[in-house]
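Before relying on records like the one below, remember that each one covers exactly one chain. Contacts with other chains, cofactors or solvent are not represented anywhere in the record.
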Amino acid sequence: MLAHCAAVAVIPVFAMTLRNLVLVLGDQLSPSISSLAQADPARDRILMAEVAEEGRYVPHHPQKIVFVLSAMRHFAAELRALGFTVDYVELNDPGNTGSLLGELERARERLVPEGVVLTEPGEWRLFEQFSRQAARWPELVMLEDDRFFCSRARFARWASGRKQLRMEYFYREMRRDTGLLMNGGEPEGGEWNLDVQNRKALPKGTRIPAQPRFEPDTVTRAVMDLVASHFPDHYGRLDAFDYPVTREAAESLWRHFLQVGLPQFGDYQDAMADGQPFLFHARIAAAMNTGLLDPARVCEQVAEAYRRGAVALNSAEGFIRQILGWREYVRGIYWLMMPDYASRNAFGNQRELPEFYWDGNTRMNCMAQAIGQTLEHAYAHHIQRLMVTGNFALLAGIEPKQICDWYLAVYMDAYDWVELPNTLGMVMHADGGYLGSKPYCASGQYIKRMSDHCKSCHYKVSEHTGERACPFNALYWHFLIRHQDRLGGNHRMAMVYRNLERMDPARREAVWAWGENLLARLDRGERL
C-alpha cells in the first residue's frame, strides 16, 4: 500500500554524473536491504515517494497509511544520518504525480542517473508494473529481496514435483536449514509442531499485560493531519494511533513482548476475550513487514529465550512457527502461483460482503468485538481473523475478492503477499485445497470454547434455528450440506459428515431452512 511510497525535495542538479538512483519503497525500510547494501552515499541518490495511488487501490485503514508514511519519513532521516542524499516526495508536494512510476520517471528525467535500482516489490501488482518499465528502461535493475529465510527460487525448488504443498513439511525443512529449535538432527523436545498445546481458552481472572504505547511525535502528527485530509472516507479510527514508527520504538515493542508476552503466548495464542484485543500477542507484524524488525533476529532471540529457560517450548515453537513456517510459506505460495491465484473461487461464491464488516454494527458479539477492535486499532490476531470474521465469510459464501480486499484494507500488517494466500487459501478455501487440506469452518461452539464472547451476545449459541439462534450454527450446517459433493470425501472432514448423516431429517431440514433465511437477509442488506 502506501507502503511503497517515498518523498522529494527539490535539490540542485549534480555537477558530476550520478551513478544510481535507488528507489526505496515503503515496506523496504531496512538499511541492509539489497538496494541499499550496494549503495554508495558519494555516488548514488535515494528516492522515496508518498503517492495517493498506493493509499487508494483499496480503502486502507487511516492508521495503516499513517504508519507507513511516518515510518518512511523517519527512515529517510535515518538514511541521511548515514550520509545518503534522499529525495523525498511528500503526498502534498506540488508536482506529485500520485504514482510510484510517475515519481520515478520525474526523478530520472531530472537527475539523469546511469542506473535505476530497486529491491523487487513484495506485491505482484507493483512487481508487474516495474517489470514492464524495465523492458522500456534498460538501466532499471530489480534486485532480490533477501530479508526472508527462503528465497523465491528456493521455495520453487522445494515445491517442484509435489502434488500438495503442506506448510508442515516446508516448516520442518526450514527448521533444519536454520537450526532453530533443533537438537542435532531432531526437533527440540522430540516434536516438530506443538499446536495442540496452543489452544487453551483464557481462564477467568487472567491478568493481561498492558501494551506499551507510542505517542505520536511531531512527524507522525503532521502525517496524521495529512492522512485525515487526503483520505477522509476510509474506514477506521485515526485518533487512536499508537504504533512504533522508528526502528528504536519497534525494538522496544519487541523487547516488551519477549519479556512479558511470550511466556504465556504459547498457551493462549488462540484465545479471545471481550475488550481484550491484544492479550499475549506481539503486535510486531506491521514493523516486521515494513522492515523495522529483522525476522531472523526475532526468531533467534525467541530460541535463545527457550534455551535459557525463560519461556516454555510451546511458546517458543508456536511463535517461531508463525514466522519461519507460515510467513515464509505463504510468501512462497504467493510468488509460485501468482497472478492466477488471486482469481480462484473454488466454491463459486458471489455474495456481497455485508456492510457490518466496515462499521462493526452487528448483534453477533464475536463479530462486533473483532471488527470493532479492527476499526479502532487496525489489528486483530490470527484466530479472530480465521475463526470469526473469516469463518463467517466462508460460511456465508462471500465472494473471495471482496473479503481479501477487506483484509488488505483494514489491517496494519496486511500486504498482498501475506494477506492473499492466508485469506483466499486458508480462510476461504477458495484455492480448492491447494494451501489447506480442509476448510477452517466451525459453528458457534468453537467461539464459545475459545472465548467469553457468547456470554454477552444477543444470540444464544445453544440454539440453531429461530431469531435468537447463533447465526454461525445454521450457516455452518448449511455450508456443509451445500458443499457435500465437494467436501464429503475429505478424510479430515469424515467425522463432521458422519454427524451430518446421523442428524434427524427434520432437524436437518430446519437448519437448512434457517440458513436459507439468514443468507436471504444478508442478500437484502440486513444486519444480523
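Residues 266 and 319 are 7 Å apart (CA to CA).
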